[in-house]
Amino acid sequence: MAEYLEGYATKFELKKFVHFGCEVNRLSVLLPSTPDNCDRKTAASAVFVEDDRGVFVEEEEEEEEEEEEEVEKKNEIDDDDDDVDSWPRMVLEWTDRSGNDEISHRRIFDGVCVCNGHYSSPSIPRISGLDNFVGDVLHSIEYDDPAEYLNSTVLCIGGRASGMDIAREIGRMPDRTKRVYLSDSTCRAWEEFGNENNVMRAPRTLMIDDDGRTVHFANESNDIDDAGSCTVDDVDVIILCSGYDYSFPFVTDESNLELSSIPGERRVMPLYMQLWHARYPSLSFIGLPHSVVPFPLFEFQSDAVVSQWLRRTAGGRRGGGARSIVPLPPTSERMASAERDARSGGPVVAGSPSAGRVTDTHYLGSHQWDYCRRLSRMCGKYDDGTEDYISTNEALYERSKVEREGMVPGEKDTYRETRFRRLDEERSYDILYTEMK
Ligand SMILES: Cc1cc2nc3c(=O)[nH]c(=O)nc-3n(C[C@H](O)[C@H](O)[C@H](O)COP(=O)(O)OP(=O)(O)OC[C@H]3O[C@@H](n4cnc5c(N)ncnc54)[C@H](O)[C@@H]3O)c2cc1C
Predict the structure, then answer these.
(1) 433 pocket-lining for ligand 1 (C-beta < 6 Å)
(2) Does the Cβ of 95 fall within 6 Å of ligand 1?
(3) Looking at residue 376, what is its pLDDT?
(4) Is 242 helix (H, G, I), strand (E, B) or coil?
(5) pTM (two decimals)
(6) Could you tell me if the CB of 2 is within 6 A of ligand 1?
(7) pLDDT digit string (tens) for 310-327?
(8) d(C-alpha 387, C-alpha 78), whole Å
């Protein structure tokens, strides 16, 4: 993965645009029609701009005036858009720790793409008694080396990608005699995994007794002990493989963005097409959908964001290519669509049935292909080549999915070793290597 990302950054000469060592602390909306706008150049909140040397300096008064003129000009250009104010500029505040001194910056941007990932803020399940558990409790984000658990009985709570991987890795350690429990709410019965050393599938973890030791599971009929009670009391370490929350610590109430991302919900709203802030599309979020092929999908999203910017700039709008870019619908329509997505759970793309849990709001799965097609059409770029690219991704995904179905501990996990060579033009792929090393 690291190699791929390095290669991508090198090919497209991206590193020169990245300000390493900088952390965004605050993102807020600058509404041209609100009085907050006038206030932004107080001593405590000076605006910084980059000078010819690439150094950030406090913005001069006349530049401020120029800026206001620019807003007016921009609004004139946008006169034929029905909702000029819905494309407000954004204020970004960040700290640069790349040098010896810590330097604070504040700057106004025409648009902001939030790409802060969603695998860094652990989602902690509510399990009664967890705080009193006598052993160690950690989240999968802290897991590193299976050797640390050689002599421990481990309970992994959550049986999807992280839980499966961790249970398998710990269970496979040579000379290991202790058990690994892999608990998941979709599991109805206790079950040993065929070939896997001591990995036992368990139903949903319910609670931990006051003794801090006895763990209760949802299933009433288990084979663990003769009494048939659904408990175990030999767990030394609990690893919470319960996923991650969307988190935007730099968005606060003062940001005035009306953005919601409540821990545990795994839902960000209001979003239009899982991408644009439905009210303020000058703010976009790349990479929120999950259960997708991430990087190709991110590229379609990025293209869509850029194309809307192109369309809105005077040159772009009058230039040839931008004519075919489909504008976003008006605010009311975007908000209604965002509301539907957020309330129905699960993907709502191009005529697909909307059903699912709130936590599946950003789940795309098999809907991702139509989602990519739709984004590409909005950019005015959808053609046979794009279709070949999407279809090939789909073919690879489906092929990989078949292999991943046997991914549970105890089954072969050959998909990791499979290598593909793309033959995009032919809507096909070659399997060059499928054997496990
Ligand atoms: C265990 C695991 C295994 C995975 N394996 C694969 C795989 O094999 N193949 C695959 O395609 N995908 C895989 N994924 C998914 C993949 O890692 C993500 O989809 C991808 O990293 C998302 O990229 P991103 O740029 O959106 O976010 P990230 O890679 O998370 O990058 C976000 C960046 O934003 C920075 N950032 C965050 N907050 C701030 C802030 N306030 N100011 C400034 N910078 C900030 C972070 O430092 C980070 O550099 C895996 C994920 C996990 C957790």
Answers:
(1) no
(2) no
(3) 97
(4) coil
(5) 0.84
(6) no
(7) 888 754 444 455 668 999
(8) 33
